[in-house]
Amino acid sequence: MKIKQLTLAIAGSALLAGAAGADVKVGALMAFTGPIESLTVGINRGAEVAAKEINDAGGVVGGNKIELVSADTTCVDASAASAAADRLVNAEKVAAIVGALCSGATIAAANSAAIQSGVVMVSPASTSPAVTSLDDNDLVFRTAPSDARQGQVLSDVLLGEGIKSVAVTYINNDYGKGFNDAFTAAYTAAGGTVTGSQAHEDGKADYRAEISALAAGGADVLVVLAYLDGSGQTIIRQAIEEGDFSRFAGGDGMVGQSLVDAIGDKLDGMIATQPGGDNEGTDTFKAIAEANGWTVDGPYQAEAYDAVALIALAMQSKGNTDREGMAKAIRAVAGAPGEEIKAGELARGLKILADGGEVNYQGATSVEFDDAGDPPGSYLVMKVTGGKFEQQAVVK
Amino acid sequence: MEYADLLNAGVYFINKGLLNAFKIGSIYALGAVGITLVFGILRFAHFAHGDMMTFGALIAFAGTVILRNLGINTEPIPTGLLALPLAVAATIILALIIDRHVYAHFRASKSPPVVFVMTSIGVTFILQGIIRLVGGTGDRQFFFTAVSNGESIREDKGRWLVKFDWLRDHFDGFTQKLVITMPQLWLFIFTAVALVGLHYFLNHTRTGKAMRAVSDNEDLARISGIDVGRVVKVTWVIAGTLAAIAGTLLAMDTQYKPILAFNLLLPMFAAAIMGGIGKPFGAVAGAFIVALAETFAVFDWRPIAGYLFADRFDMTASMALVPAEYKLAVPFAILVLVLIWRPTGIFKGQVL
Amino acid sequence: MNPANRSRVVIATALIIALFLAAWFMLSPVTALLYLSTGLATAVIVLGLNIQWGYAGLFNAGILGFIALGGYAVMWVSVPPVPEAIAAGGAGLLSVIVKLAVTAICIWVLHLAAKRLPINLPVWLLRTLQVSIALAGYIWMKTEFVIAVEAIETADTLDQTMKGFIGGLGLPVLLGWAVGGVFAGIAAWFIGKVTLGLRSDYLAIATLGIAEIIRTFLKNADWLTRGTLTVSPIDWPVPTPREMNGMLESGLEINLKWLGISAEQTATAVGRGLFIAVSAIVLIILVLMMERALGSPWGRMMRAIRDNEDAAAAMGKNVVRRQLEVFVLGAILMGIGGAMLVSLNTLFDPSSYHPPRYTFLIWTMLIVGGSGNNLGAVFGALFIYMLWEMSEPIAQFLFFGGADMLTALIPGFEPPVDLASRASQMRVIVIGVALIATMRYAPKGVIPER
Lengths: 396, 352, 450
Known about the structure:
The complex is a heterotrimer. Chain B is mainly alpha-helical. Chain B is built from 13 helices and four strands. Chain B has a single domain (about 5-340), classed as ABC transporter involved in vitamin B12 uptake, BtuC (Orthogonal Bundle). In chain B, α6 packs across α7. Chain C has 17 helices and no strands. The N and C termini of chain C lie close together (about 5 Å). In chain C, about 55% of the residues are buried. The model of chain C has no long low-confidence stretch (mean pLDDT about 90). The chains are: A alpha/beta, B mainly alpha, C mainly alpha.
């Protein structure tokens, strides 16, 4: 932004004097206001941590520092999402965009601004199938897992545990709806019974009426497809307080220590799926975050880290910071062949690329893209035991 | 039919139906009374009321954090309650500041009600922004593990379980129980005390009577020597107090979030209007009607039918009147019906 | 136009142009064009509110319901039908519609019979009969409806972007704008019939509630609207920037260098420019029509009713009927505006519709612009929308600039890590301050009623 450069000149030009090379701007389409405002702060930090790691390693393409420029899509308002994306693409002239978060915002941003100008978007949080089938000239990627695949995985895990009947409550947005559709289809096809399935609105204080209506169906396992620091936590707590359900299951939106801390030992036995090939990448990412004074907790933060890392590695690999060729470069660094790069090894990855080598970025969530730019990825099965989410198995 | 089944059905109905409705109804009541008082005396729909509740909860949360970090733990009284006076004071001050710097000007210029409504929407915007600017956008728990002097203490929400041991011994197969958590118990106590106190205040004190007089006819009240300015201040003090209590108790029962009470605004308006504007106890009745309607519209009768008419029905489909997705729409449908049937509410409130 | 107003119009126009130019030069030309096109679509909505509130004094707080219906209509008209879903559940749905019609006709006939026939049916008996028929009809069609909906929502489709709902008509999108107005108007007729006897604040809260019901329905009736899965792309009435791109590549030559628009932004600029042209034509036609209506005997009567309902009623004016007309007219404009917005964003997402953005912000636009004055409504829409969009970059500039300055001045100062998040909260504060300041210092708005 021109005005920002102006102030920087007035306010802190001394600070910038030390920086080598020009900065390269990467857009961050976040949802600081609106229904997922509480998740967004963490997601944005995931992106910032990656940018910091890259800048500490000397930046990309001969010392260009990555500057994240954020804009607010409000998650739900398509006008705001279009305008925010347009500002990043046309005014800030970003090289690529991390985001948007909600699927509707991603579609609006891609259609209104990004695709038209050939800007790559890597969404860390849009899980809806609608993003898969977007007519996007191969410009829209996502590091977030697709609902369809995860629903299948969760269904398999539950049936494997011998759970034959469940009730489902899902957050009434693209994530919950898509996940529920996939899960219910897979679960009933494999012989399980869904005794009740309900959408709920996020941000309400009280879900007791909905929970007891679900409990009336007779299942004692509740599948909660929501976010842990929103309705998901409230629902589990109220279900336990009321004695309606004794055991829980969920998706990636529910995995986080704060859930266990808030609920306590009553949560033991909860099963959840989460994208990732092994715990190593995720653990390293958590350690990096801790080193930056922040505890990773909640969905899509590791995905945001990976999104920024991918963009940076892609720029390094093609040797410039232009928009052109970004999609191809992202595919090149995300897939084989090449040296595997995990979270925390971005400096090594940048160096290999600078020396003309190849990398296969794995990152915090085992990044991989299929033809539509989705991660076909593998999933971790997590189970709460002794006050912690413990990894049970890896499902490819 | 076994007696135990009848008992099970009855206790289930009370626990999952009535008690659930009363929990959320108490919150609605505390908010709706404030709204109806402001509506009756200042004559406008105060849209910023929900955010005043959130503001109270935020202050109470800040207070709780400070107290817990000082190592104070007073179970079974939640620390949040110790911080409540602070929240009440802060919310009262906020209400008075807003009134003095915003609404007072329009009162002086005798603006029409729509001006006040629009202004209160402006206040809502500003409050929502400030709450997030100061408190951040995250959710927060009132019950957490605090570390003070190197010692970590976990405060537990606890729970009151009424187990009916005597009944269980006498009726085989009696399995239901009543569940109330600690914050809910305090919620019921506070609601009862606040409403009884308000009733006494409005009917037996000079200021309370003055408030009722202003609510009935402001001009008449003014010429009979009532200090209307003071009445307005007292109204804000009461509305602020109730808002802070409702917000804090709601946040303790669930969790603090910036959108906490804005979502409750519409049901609370529905309650206030249903009860008749300017009628505090009409608002209470309206609040419980809204809560009961919400709860029972989505109430699934299957377990009760199961206890009473075991196996005589096909019970694979839900027996709720309305799918749970439409729960929010229920109070409004009822509100519209009430407005058509009796435009001034069930208890004949004011005509604006 | 009196002289005082003329100078205010000049100032207001200058303000809009200044904001537009600020966006053009500080951000980018195409961004400014996007702001303008969204602002124009919003202006149609605010114009609708001006008719309801400014002309007739109806306190409608259910604006978002009409906007959402308009948005649904344009989606329904312009997207193609989904043959697989119709094959799966179309017959069942048709049967439900027939049954619904039969039930409604029975209730209507009963109503007519009680009115026209010489038999004296007690009201309670009539109502009980009608409610019983409605209930019986509900039970009659419920199972079939549930089965049909299930079939539609799970039908496998070739095109994954269209899975889960019955689709639309596949007709030109401009027709969808008109149908948006029709849908909103029909809804407004029913809502007005029920609520228009209510006075000011009661009417506001009743309409607020009904809008919530409409929103909940559109969001959850997945078979009809695809719910939270959203429908895209919705077409433009003019070539979209992407289509424009294709045209430019295939030899069409347009040079906008003289406007400071770079080659890669030309397609976007031309596409948006065309959209702005169409929106502006729609808006100008509507403004002229409303101006004529306002100057006609009908308009004078409306203002008479607004200023003194009782006196107008005493003079033999049918107040409720006139108010119903104006309520429907305003809603039609809101529906058209809602359709234009959905078309512009190429996405129909029923969860978009939230009261702060689509009811309260619209009210702010009218109040700031000046209620009772169509030019004021248009000005308010453009001004507040641009302020709403531009307050984010400005707040970021102030916050980050301030943080940088403090970091430089105070050793050891660490700005809060969620600065960007906090800066985004300034948007609502700016709008709130603008609203209160207007109410206080220019209660009639920037361009008041003549």
